[in-house]
Amino acid sequence: MTTLLIGNKAYSSWSARPWLLMTALDIPFAEKVIPLYAEGSREKALAVAPTGKVPVLINDGFAAWDSLAIVEFLHERFPEKNVWPADAQKRARARSLCAEMHSGFQALRQACPTNFRRDPREKPLELDEAARENLSRIDAIFSQAEGPFLFGDYSAADAFFTPVATRLHIYRLPISAGAQAYAQELLAHPAYEGWREGARAEDWVIERWENL
């Protein structure tokens, strides 16, 4: 039995990453939502992971936390699902990109908070220099997609960059045609559509992430 503990689908981009991957690759799991910043939520998360944060994957009583660790556990637990590209060099590059996403792009994240249920802004958001540098790097990564996804078939790398594609769409950020084509593939994926449908069905509201 595999259970994925996640935060609100509207706001939790880190929860989205393993959820999208498992859904896209047809890895069976049950989900349990622990609402972000709700009373008692941290205690519920601490009961299964020492960080008190989501996402957490529980498999037969074993808990793995943090999106990168969860992805690596899935790779080992379900080798037939091709969580990473089969080619060794592509696999290393995919891991590098996920690590870059995991630890970087702070300026863009701060400027563009995640809200999966939000419709696009009327006007593009103006970014500061640091966020524009982040956007330029994202454009370069997206433009290198081998089609339709970063390494041909859907992998963990695509799940990690889907929340970024959401930000590009919501905040109407300018990117090249090649990068836009890849972003649209991510947003058209059935797994993403399922996540967004779940986000729109939620009742939880965190005001500071609604008035963007």
TrEMBL record:
Listed GO molecular functions? glutathione transferase activity; maleylacetoacetate isomerase activity
Q: Which UniProt keywords apply?
A: Transferase
> Known CDD domains for this protein?
GST_C_3 (cd03194), GST_N_1 (cd03043)
**UniProt entry tagged with the keyword Transferase:** yes
Please provide an example of a Pfam family that matches this protein in its UniProt record. GST_N_2
Q: Which InterPro entries match?
A: Glutathione-S-Trfase_C_sf, Glutathione_S-Trfase, Glutathione_S-Trfase_N, Thioredoxin-like_sf
Tell me, what is an example of a GO biological process annotation in this record?
Answer: glutathione metabolic process
Boundaries of each GST N-terminal domain copy?
A: 2-82
Protein name (database record): Glutathione S-transferase
Organism of this sequence: Rhodoblastus acidophilus (Rhodopseudomonas acidophila)
